[in-house]
Amino acid sequence: MFTEMNNKLVAIKGELRKDHKYRVQMADYEQELAQIEERIAQLQNQFESEQDDVVKLERLSLANLLATLAGTKETKLTKEKQEMLAAQHKLSEARKTKGDIDKEISLLHEKMKKLEASKLEYQQLLKQKEELIKESPSPFAEKLFELIEQEGGLQSSLTELNEAIAAGGSVKNALMDALESLDRAGAWGQFDMFGGGTISGIKKHQHIDAAEESLHRAQVRMRKFQKELLDVKETAYLDINVSGMLKFADFFFDGFIVDYMVQSKITQSVEETRHQNRKVSEILTKLEKKQAETLKQLEAVQKEKREIVENL
Fold it and tell me: Which UniProt keywords apply (predicted)?
């Protein structure tokens, strides 16, 4: 009976820890959603403004005629079109991000619904536990259940650490993909600067497009990693700075269409991506250290519990 109760309590303890974790994550997602909706509204206004500027320049007017004769109209029009495309790109990226957040919020709602039954089951198990302690002739029964509680808590912590480590590893994979594409874009960019011609320009842009996809994927995974860390920080008492993690790719997405033919922009993107990769590695080192400590504590509790069970 004790063994069966032990297994149930350990499992249910993990489920209840998830409830707290999901609530912390939900609050953060909702805050992030409000911010991205505000940003989308701002970017929509910016895009419409840039669009108006292009339309004004394309209209036939005395000012445009004079600008054409002076040879400055095409330069201005090209600049305005680039700015319009940049605003459109940022708006598109922000909408993608909102879609990612909406999806995660929906998944969390489903997960939280499933935990309602676990809360009721836990209350029932607590009553059964009290009855078992009262009925047991052993003075160690209460101590056993204390150890069961500890075991459940430690197993939950270990699961959360494992999930955070897996999420961090996933971020690193996407960052490495982005670095590979950016390095290739940089190499073709150098060739382009020395008269590489149309082919080198096309190749450079292809690798920049691939880097953009990898960075968006990294941003999605970074969001999940950051949400995992919110709970781990609190439960494992880890000193981890999660602020700014979700803005790491802004350096790339903000205005990259205007600048993407500039070699220095590619170099800057490589440096920033490497910096983020190092930061994730540092966090993973802390998590892995805590993982080893937690596993050691869990094994000690399980050993003590086994010794009591054998003497009951």
Answer: Coiled coil
Residue keyed to tokens 């991000």: 97
Give the other-Cβ count within 10 Å of 137's Cβ: 6
* Stronger pLDDT, 109 or 135, i.e. the higher one: 109
Percent of residues, the chain, with pLDDT higher than 70 = 72
Q: How many domains does the chain have?
A: 1
Give pairs for 286-292: CB < 8 Å, separation 24+.
286/238, 286/239, 286/240, 287/161, 287/164, 287/165, 287/168, 287/232, 287/238, 288/165, 290/161, 290/232, 290/236, 290/238, 291/158, 291/161, 291/162, 291/165
Please give the mean pLDDT across all residues of the chain: 78
Cα 196 from chain centre:
38
Cβ count near 94 (within 10 Å): 20
Distance (Å, whole) CA 72 – CA 51: 19
pLDDT of residue 44: 95
Cβ(309)–Cβ(2) under 8 Å?
yes
Alpha-carbon distance of 239 to 258, in angstroms, equals 39
Q: For position 142, what pLDDT does the model report? A: 76
Q: What is the mean pLDDT of residues 103-130?
A: 83
Other beta carbons within 10 angstroms of residue 88's beta carbon come to 16
- Confidence class for position 6, pLDDT limits 50, 70, 90: low
Structural domain including 259 reads 2-311
Distance between CA atoms of residues 126 and 122, nearest Å? 6
> CA 46 to CA 83: how far, in whole Å?
10
